[in-house]
Amino acid sequence: MTELEIFMLQAQSSQATGAYQIAMAFSVWVAFRVASVVGKEHGSNLVAKVAGSVFGLGTLFFFNMTYAFYSFNMASTGHRLAQLQASGGEISALAADYVIQSGASTTAPAMSLLPSDPIIALLELSILTLILVPIWMPKK
């Protein structure tokens, strides 16, 4: 695999992940709406609260998966470039910098559902809060 093919594979994967992220952003908005409706109109209905919570948590899980795929794609690109370099293949200065900046090695990266970026972790925590608080907090 050449450097160009590696970056083309990264671009294709990023495009697919981006399209999925658009769908997940819409799903998060729907989860916010569900939480709002359940909290305002069905506050005493335990079944509605559980269903709204499960929908919100499921949505957040798949939202998190999007970022896990993106992180894995970036790590895999670095790994492929490091392998190409280690096998004696030529890589550009930009690709060599990518390998260094991403901390890539010839050891294959592992997929992880735990966010490695603290900003993403905070975003997901805020989404979780904005879904569960309207459903479960007592009303005034």
What would you note in describing this structure?
The protein is an all-alpha fold. The protein has one domain. The chain has helices spanning 3-41, 46-86, 93-102, 118-136. The relative contact order is 0.17. The mean pLDDT is 94.
Could you name the key traits of this structure?
140 residues, mainly alpha, 4 helices, 0% strand
Number of β-strand runs: 0
**What kind of oligomer do you see?**
single chain
Largest sheet report = none
Low-confidence stretches: none
Q: Calculate the terminal CA-CA distance, rounded to whole Å.
A: 62 Å
Q: For the residues shown, what is the average pLDDT?
A: 94
Shape: elongated
Radius of gyration: 20 Å
Structural class, from helix and strand content?
mainly alpha
Q: Given the structure, what is the number of helices? A: 4
How much helicity do the residues have?
Answer: over 70%
What number of domains?
Answer: 1
Order of helices and strands: HHHH
The proportion of strand residues reads under 5%
Give a quick summary of the entry.
With 140 residues, the chain is mostly helical. 78% of the residues lie in helices and 0% in strands.
